Amino acid sequence: MTAKYTPMMEQYLSVKAQAQDAFLFFRLGDFYEMFFEDAVLASRELEITLTGRDAGADERVPMCGIPYHSAESYINRLIEKGYKVAICEQVETPAEAKGVVRREIVRVVTPGTVMEGKALPEKANNYIAAVAERRGSLALAVCDLTTGELYTAGTGASFSDLLDELSVYSVSEAVGAARLLERLNESAPDRARPVALTPREAAAEDEALLLSQFPSQQIAVLAPEQRAAVSLLLAYLKETQKRSLAHIGAIRVYETNAYMTLDPFTRKNLELSETVRDRSRKGSLLWLLDRTVTALGARLLRRWLDKPLMNADAIRRRLDAVEALHRNVLLRDEIRESLKSVYDLERLAGRIAYGTANARDLNALKSSLSAVPQLMELCANSGSDALADIVRDADDCADVYRIIEDGIHPEPSVSVREGGIIRDGYNERLDRLREASGNGKRWIAELEQAEREATGIKSLKIGYNKVFGYYIEVTRSNLAAVPEGRYERKQTLAAAERFVTPELKEKEALILEAEEKTVELEYGLFVEIRERIAAEIPRLQRLSEQISALDALQSLAVIAAANRYVRPEVHDGYEMFVEEGRHPVVEAVLESNTFIANDTSFSLDGTRALLITGPNMAGKSTYMRQVALISIMAQIGSFVPAKKAVLPIIDRVFTRIGAADDLAGGQSTFMVEMRDIQTMIAKATPRSLVVIDELGRGTSTGEGMAIAQAVIEHLHEKAHCKTLVSTHYHELAHLEQTLEHLTNACMAVKESGDQVTFLRKLVKGAADSSYGIYCAQLAGLPATVIERAYALLSEFEGRSKARDTVKKASREAAAGVEQLDLFREWKDPEAEKRNAMAVTIMELLNNADLLNMTPLDAMNMLFELKRKAQE
Q1: Helix, strand or coil for residue 742?
Q2: Among 645, 649, 650, 631, which residue's Cα sits nearest to residue 564?
Q3: Strand order of the sheet with strand 469-475?
Q4: How far is CA 778 from CA 323, 681, 755, 772, 773, in A?
Q5: Would you say 337 and 402 are in contact if contact means Cβ atoms under 8 Å apart?
Q6: What angle do CA 505, 509, 512 make, to 5 degrees?
Q7: Please, what is the Cα angle at 801 between 800 and 806, to 5 degrees?
Q8: Is the dihedral of CA 530, 534, 540, 541 positive or negative?
C-alpha cells in the first residue's frame, strides 16, 4: 500500500521525479531541505545533521537542510565530488497561491555548468563536452558556460583521436549516447576521464533549438556528426539552466590537424600544466610562462599551451608581437599597468547574459572598459604591425561604460534586492521616494530629541527592527518619567520597555512604504540596465578576445626578458638545431642558476635518432624533455631557452617517461609502456618528435633489448621521425653501425678515484656504465649493502665474460677456425708473450686518470707505453 503524504511532501516527490540523478534542494522558507535518500547521502557528504519530519506517513521521513544564503558553498562541495544539484524555488507568493505554494526547478548545477564560486577555477576554463557519432564518424563539441565559448571538431572514425581531443580541454562533464559514454569510460585513462558522464540521447527538438540559437551560415559548415554534437550539448544546457543562452552566440569550428597533438600521457610526462608528483601548478611549464595580469589572459595562455599552432605564419605573427614587447620595456610596463584595471570581462559578460550579475559586477565591467582606450592607444602607436593588428577595428564599448556610469551607484550594496544600487539623479521618481524616506528619517531623529527634552529622559532612543518597526525605548529606571496616555506599550525587555505613539506609527507607515517602493523601483531599474548591457554581449566578447591576447603576449615577453630566451626561427622543413638549449622549468627552480646547456641537431640526411646511454642522475631525462618543451614553446609563439634555435613544425609529441601502471585496469607497468609504444608506432610521422626514457626495461634483459632494438629500427626505418631514446642497454650502441641516421650519445661523467661527478653535458659516443650502485650510495643505502652490491657486480661481470669466451670459442669452432685437431695442443711461446704484453698495455690505459693527469704524468705514461710496446 502506498504511503499517504502531506500535500507539501507530495509536491516534493513530484518535483524530485524530474531530477532523479541530482540532489534536490527544495526551498522551504529560509532553508533548502532534502528528504529521503537525498537527505541520508547529503548528511554524509556535507557532514550536516540528519533529522526527520512528519510527512503524513507512519514513519518520519529522513530530512536535512541548509540555510539558503549559504547554499553556494554546499553546492560547490557536492559538485567537486561529481554530483549534480537541482535548485527548486518558490515561483509564486503565498498570497497568490491556492493551496501549497507552487515550486519549480529553476536550475540544475552540474560539474560542467558551474557559473561561480570556489568550484570554478579562475585561471582555467570549465568545459562541458558532448560527443556524437554519425555514419562511423565521431565529433565533439565543448563549451565553457561561464564565457560562452563553443568549439567543435570532427575526429574521423578514430576513438583514440576523440580521447586525445577531449584531454585537451580537461572536461569536467561529458554528455552523449550511453554506448558512446560507456566506450569513453572504458577506453580513457583516469587522467583523461571526465568527472561526470551524463547519458542523453538525441531528440527531435534538439535540431530546432540549434537553428534558433545560431545563424544558418554557421550551421551550414558543420559536418553531420558535428551538428549532432553541438545540438546535443545545446539542448542539455537549455534543459539544465532553464534560461536564455544568448551569450553562446558563435560556433568555432576547427580541424584537429591545425594544432599539435599532445596526448594525455605526454601532457602529464612533460608537466605542461601540473606536476606529476603532486599535481601542483607550481613547477609546471604553465606556472613558469604565466605572468598574465588578468584572469582571461591566463585562460587564453593555457589554451595556447594546450593547442600549439601548426601554421608557421600564425606562429611568426605571435612571435612578432612578443618581440615588439620584448624589445620595448616601457611599452610592456605601461600595458601591464593598464591591464590591472581589467576584471574578468569574459565571465562578467557571461553573468550579465545569464541574469546573475549584481551592481558590483557592472562596476567591475565599467572599470575594465575604462582601461580600453589606453590599451588601444599603446598598441596602435607601438610601431609594431603585430600589436596594431590586435586592436585594429577594436570597439571600446564607450556607450556601455556610460550606461553604467550614469545608472549604477559607485559603491552599491551586494544584493540587488536591498536598494542602494542606483545612482542619485538617474530616475526622478526614485529621487522623490528617496527624499520622502530621508525626510522621514530626519523627522524620526528630530522626534527623538524632542521626546528626550519633553520627558527629561536623556537615554531615550528611537530604534527599528523588522518585526516591530519603529519604537521608543526607555530603560526600566526611567519608566516613571514616561508620560501617561500618549505612550502605548509595545514590547517588554529585561532592562527596558518599548513604546509607540500615534505620530510615530503614522510616520513609520510613510517611511516603510517609501523604502519598499524605493527597493522595488531600484531593482526594476537595475534589471533594465543589465538587459541593455546584455544586448551588447557580442561586442564585449570580441573586446575580451583582444584584451586576453594582448595579456598572453605580454606574459610571454616578460618571461623571455627575465630568462634570456631567444626568438626561434620556425620553418616547415625537417631540420632542428638548438644551440645551448635549456630546460625552462628546471633552470628556473635551480637556486644556483648553473644549468648546463646542451645542443640538439636533427636533419634528414644526418641524425634522426639519438640513442642516449649513461646513469639516471646525469640528466638524460631532463635533456630529452627540454627538446620537447622547446618545440612546444616555439609553436605557441614563445621565445625559447637557448642561444639559438631553428625549429621545424612538429605535428605530434610522443613521450614515454618514467614508470607507470594501471592496476585498476589490469595493466602492468610494462603493458602500459607497450601500449604507449604501440600508439607511437601507429601514429608517428616524419614531422613527429618521439621521446622514450628507458625503453624496454619492464621485462627480462634479453627480451627488453630485443624489443628496444626492434622499436628503434622501426622508428628509424619506417616513421623517419625525430627520436630521442635513453637506455641502460649499452649493448645497443652497435646500432650506430647499422642504422645510418642513428647517433650514439651519453652524458659526460668525470671519475676521480671513488668519486663520480655527473657533468650533465651531452657528448657523442656510448657510455660503458650506468653507475647504478654509485647512485644507490648517493641515495643513502647502507655501506654494507653498497659493498655487497659491488662484490656481486664483480662476480656477475666475471661470469658474463666467461660466458662470452665460451660463446666466442663455440662460434669460431662452428666457423671452421680450428679445423686441424692434430695441432690443437700446439702452442706458440712468442705469441703468448706478445698477448701478455698487450694485456699489460691495455691495463695501463684503462687505469689512467686522464682528467686529473698532469702533463708530466702524461709524458711518463707515454714513455712507459713505448717501452712496453718495444718489448
Answers
A1: strand
A2: 645
A3: 461-465, 469-475, 496-500, 488-492
A4: 44, 37, 11, 10, 9
A5: no
A6: 130
A7: 100
A8: positive
Q: What's the pLDDT at 272?
A: 95
Q: Are strands 689-693 and 722-727 parallel, antiparallel or unpaired?
A: parallel
Mean pLDDT of the chain: 87
**Does an H or E element contain 133, and which?**
strand 127-134
Quickly state the pLDDT bin for 766 (edges 50, 70, 90): confident
- Say how far apart CA 162 and CA 131 lie, in whole Å: 9
Domains along the chain with CATH numbers: 7-109 (3.40.1170.10), 127-258 (3.30.420.110), 290-397+536-563 (1.10.1420.10), 428-526 (1.10.1420.10), 569-778 (3.40.50.300), 783-870 (no CATH)
Calpha distance 308→286 (Å, rounded): 13
User: How many Å apart are CA 744 and CA 746, to the nearest integer?
Assistant: 7
Say if CB 547 and CB 345 are below 8 A apart.
Answer: yes
CA-to-CA distance for 765 and 754, rounded, in angstroms? 23
Alpha carbon separation from 814 to 309, 694, 809 (Å, rounded)? 59, 36, 9
Q: Which of 130-144, 716-730, 784-798, 819-833 has the lowest mean pLDDT?
A: 819-833
Task: Encode pLDDT of 310-352 as tens digits.
Answer: 999 999 999 999 999 999 999 999 999 999 999 999 999 999 9
Cα–Cα dist 131/174, whole Å: 7
Per-residue model confidence as pLDDT tens digits over 632-683: 999 999 999 999 999 999 999 999 875 444 333 444 566 777 777 888 888 9
State the average pLDDT over residues 80-95. Answer: 90
